[in-house]
């Protein structure tokens, strides 16, 4: 209770103009970086890290937390408007956000994304404040076998959630898993599938994969489009967009349902507490769970607001969850919290079980900034700048996609400082273009690539510890829990639902 009071008292720091400027500036910078493919919030924080040396620790951590929150919600802007997620955590948002944009409901889609981000971010931060020590202990109960089963659960569920395209989704996921094996072996100091190329020794980087799969392939798709983009622009020109259009009506929020917001937020927070899971897995699992429990699963991917809300609520709730292992054990939950860990260490703060009691007064302002960013800055930014976000699609197609192509290629290079990886983003773009052209869901390819390395590592570690006995996944309770959960999802998504509503 004492820690909660410290957090509440820390809100008074935001009354200081200097601190407020840093927090707001951090949020705007994070939003801009997150909305541009290749320029993630991680990069923004890394570039701005030297500036934190001149700030006191509370101000530096408050600015970092606002960038973190902005980085999670900012990717939904381009995911919705032009079908190119600015951040990996917004990949699922594009599945329903862009169809709504094509239907002339772009402002409403962005409104749902912002409202979901606000609820998820605020709940994640509140849960962090209230439950951090307890959740950290629970997360430690998930051992190596449990982590493998969790990752396998995520891949299987997302594949079978692609209704009508399960076989193609499975094939795309396998391609992603295969690409993840390129480079150094996960357990031994040897290279695999490099074909004698030294550039492939480090494997394929995630950012060029994302940029190629979404940005480059989308540019190629639009170049061959039959005028859908022009029709959308013409439709938007006929509609007078007001700022109130970005505020979802109460009837729309009721249609989505309170449970969708709460359940997705809890899923995101729980996933965030697992080191290395990140916002992508949180949004994947929340989206799949929303499809599973929906009475109209066939509407997802065609402009269902619940898909947007599930994805954005979960990936913003991850912010609160990912800080749990970082603060209590010094284990970063994702790349952003790894940089924030560096800010703590630089300022002489050692994360660990005693942090919440010994130096709580230094951590409390950061959590207050997290809540402030979610509840105030997310909706305020959309309300003030929303009309300008929508106008992205009104830019001439050749100019818009020319700029995006330049940013995508530059973003690939900036993310890796490798010309080879930059070229790989172009190769992946062409591959993703042909997959999309033949109706393969590339989202499962990227999921396989993201989760592949950890999936292989935990599988081989588990089998090594059990002397090659696969029954270890059924005899350990943490693993058995996720195995049973997988079977439940398979039943509801692939057996029960199709019997009622055939493909």
Automatic annotation (TrEMBL):
Cytoplasm is among the record's keywords: no
Annotated TM spans: 20-48, 60-82, 109-136, 148-164, 170-187, 362-384, 399-420, 479-495
Alphabetically ordered keywords of this record: Membrane, Transmembrane, Transmembrane helix
Ranges where the DUF112 domain occurs: 20-447
Pfam families: TctA (PF01970)
Source domain of life: Bacteria
Matching InterPro entries: DUF112_TM
Record-given protein name: Tripartite tricarboxylate transporter permease
Organism: Psychromonas aquatilis
């Amino acid at each position: 209770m004492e820690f909660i009071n410290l957090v509440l008292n820390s809100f008074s720091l935001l009354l200081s103009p200097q601190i407020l400027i840093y927090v707001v500036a951090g949020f705007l910078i994070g939003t801009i970086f997150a909305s541009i493919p290749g320029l993630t919030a991680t990069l923004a924080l890394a570039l701005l890290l030297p500036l934190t040396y001149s700030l006191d620790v509370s101000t530096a951590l408050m600015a970092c937390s606002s960038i973190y929150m902005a980085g999670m919600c900012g990717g939904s802007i381009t995911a919705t408007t032009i079908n190119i997620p600015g951040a990996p955590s917004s990949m699922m948002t594009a599945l329903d956000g862009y169809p709504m944009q094509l239907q002339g409901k772009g402002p409403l889609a962005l409104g749902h994304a912002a409202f979901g981000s606000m609820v998820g971010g605020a709940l994640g931060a509140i849960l962090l404040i209230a439950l951090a020590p307890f959740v950290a202990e629970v997360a430690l109960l998930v051992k190596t076998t449990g982590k493998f089963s969790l990752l396998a659960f995520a891949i299987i569920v997302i594949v079978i959630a692609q209704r009508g395209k399960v076989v193609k989704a499975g094939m795309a996921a396998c391609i992603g898993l295969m690409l993840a094996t390129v480079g150094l072996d996960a357990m031994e100091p040897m290279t695999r599938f490099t074909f004698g190329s030294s550039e492939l020794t480090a494997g394929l980087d995630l950012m060029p994969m994302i940029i190629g799969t979404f940005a480059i392939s989308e540019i190629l798709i639009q170049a061959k489009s039959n005028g859908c983009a022009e029709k959308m622009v013409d439709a938007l020109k006929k509609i007078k967009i007001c700022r109130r259009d970005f505020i979802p009506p109460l009837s729309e929020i009721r249609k989505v349902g309170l449970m969708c917001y709460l359940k997705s937020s809890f899923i995101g927070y729980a996933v965030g507490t697992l080191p290395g899971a990140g916002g992508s897995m949180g949004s994947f699992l929340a989206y799949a769970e929303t499809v599973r429990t929906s009475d109209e699963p066939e509407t997802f991917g065609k402009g269902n607001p619940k898909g947007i809300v599930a994805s954005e609520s979960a990936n913003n709730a991850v912010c609160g969850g990912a800080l749990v292992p970082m603060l209590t054990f010094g284990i970063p939950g994702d790349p952003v919290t790894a940089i924030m860990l560096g800010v703590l260490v630089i300022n002489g703060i050692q994360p660990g079980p005693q942090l919440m009691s010994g130096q709580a007064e230094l951590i409390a302002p950061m959590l207050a900034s997290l809540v402030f960013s979610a509840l105030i800055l997310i909706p305020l930014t959309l309300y003030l700048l929303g009309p300008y976000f929508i106008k992205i699609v009104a830019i001439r197609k050749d100019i818009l996609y020319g700029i995006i192509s330049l940013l995508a290629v530059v973003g690939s290079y900036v993310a890796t400082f490798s010309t080879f990886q930059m070229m790989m983003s172009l190769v992946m773009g062409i591959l993703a273009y042909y997959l999309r052209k033949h109706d393969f869901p590339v989202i499962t390819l990227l999921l396989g690539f993201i989760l592949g390395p950890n999936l292989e590592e935990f599988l081989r570690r588990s089998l090594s510890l059990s002397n090659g006995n696969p029954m270890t996944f059924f005899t350990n309770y943490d693993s058995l829990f996720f195995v049973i959960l997988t079977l439940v999802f398979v039943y509801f998504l692939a057996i029960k639902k199709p019997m009622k509503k055939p493909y």
